[in-house]
Amino acid sequence: GQNIDQPTEMTATEGAIVQINCTYQTSGFNGLFWYQQHAGEAPTFLSYNVLDGLEEKGRFSSFLSRSKGYSYLLLKELQMKDSASYLCAIMDSNYQLIWGAGTKLIIKP
Amino acid sequence: ETGVTQTPRHLVMGMTNKKSLKCEQHLGHNAMYWYKQSAKKPLELMFVYSLEERVENNSVPSRFSPECPNSSHLFLHLHTLQPEDSALYLCASSRGDRGSGANVLTFGAGSRLTVL
What we know:
Chain A is mostly beta strands. In chain A, 0% of the residues lie in helices and 57% in strands.
């Protein structure tokens, strides 16, 4: 079957760094997405990885290892506004998006 | 107005009511989606329309009925729902290049549905 695992909840301190992991087992792979969703708001696109390695976008970076079925989202210099849920999704061989249940990130001052 | 707009934002209905959720996108996208989001569960894809044609229906109960009159508008008609249908219903749109891996979805803020 297809499966995506990410931690349910994480807590971090303002100004620190946090890494949110996502592991997956899917039928084929056509890319991995990260979305951010603030409470009561729309999920918004953060990053897309299709090749192994690290993609950096300002304070956010996303890493992919296809051989390990593993990705992480790295958030640096955490701000209170980064408190949100982070959704990992894989596009499988049929170009269907398979979603994780999301990681709720709580930032404390 | 830009982006994806959903109305109403909140809806409470009884099991015998009939109501509709509306979604509108102003991005020039060709594909539109309905997702169900329940607490601590992955997003569940319900329906996909591409160029106004339904291309996917993921075994959704018939009490949910989608309608896509044009590429900018999408409706979800609700009838005789059950309490377990209470959830956040998200609409999304994309360019429609489903054969492309980088098919980014733009979501609306959702309609929070409570079935009593």
